Amino acid sequence: MAYTWFILLLTLSGTALMLLVLHGTGLGDLLHDRIPDRPRRRLFIATVSFFLTFGGVRGVVYCITHQIPPFHFVVMQGRHVHHLVFGIVILLAVGYAWLAEIGVGTGSSSLLAGRLLSVLYGVGAALTLDEYALWLNLRDVYWSPEGRASIDAVVLFGALLAAGAWGAPLFSGKTAKKNR
């Protein structure tokens, strides 16, 4: 049970750090100025969060499999709880929050809530898709050749997030004004 709290603490501290950088420094204002479209800002934040989480999770799992302290698998009552479980719970919570229209207003607290939900969406998606091969094979194939399906899923979904953040004007059907 202590390892569950460790994973939860790691996720919360990473999310808090990202929010601190986005909300407590000039980076949040720069992001707001450079990407004025709110859905694109959310996609950008989710993309960054997604790739940082994926890299962090791969590093933690490497440490676990090579027995580097303090990292260990989460085991509850003798059962290994895969990190996709935490990802699914986070995705369900974010989806519910967005259905309840939390963080979609224009106020300062809504901006913070929107950023938080964007970060958490990236975290949840990375935790879930990092074990995509487990979905397909119904057994742990993390470092085996079958585990490559997880990498493929992460690359494809990460590309979709990035295309939404940076390539949205290509899909909007609007023509850009030329600077003269």
Question: Topology of this structure?
Answer:
Elements: H1 2-24, H2 26-34, H3 38-65, E1 75-76, E2 79-80, H4 83-99, H5 108-129, H6 132-137, H7 148-166, H8 168-172
Antiparallel strand pairs: 1-2
Helix pairs in contact: 1-2, 1-5, 3-5, 3-7, 4-5
Portion of residues within helices: over 70%
Major sheet: size, sense and barrel closure?
2 strands, antiparallel
Q: List low-confidence stretches.
A: 175-180
Oligomer status: single chain
Number of strands: 2
| Radius of gyration based on Cα positions | 18 Å
Strand order of the largest sheet: 1-2
Structural class: mainly alpha
Mean pLDDT metric? 82
> Separation of termini?
62 Å
Strand residue content: under 5%
Order of helices and strands: HHHEEHHHHH
Domains, number = 1
Number of helices, where a helix is a run of at least 4 consecutive DSSP H or I residues: 8
General form:
globular
Summary tags:
180 residues, mainly alpha, two-stranded antiparallel sheet, 2% strand, globular, disordered C terminus
Your description of this structure?
This protein has 180 residues and is mostly helical. It has one domain (2-165). It contains eight helices and two strands. Strands 1-2 form a two-stranded antiparallel ribbon. Helix 1 (2-24) packs across helix 2.
Please give a quick description of this structure:
The protein has 180 residues and is mostly helical. It has eight helices and two strands.
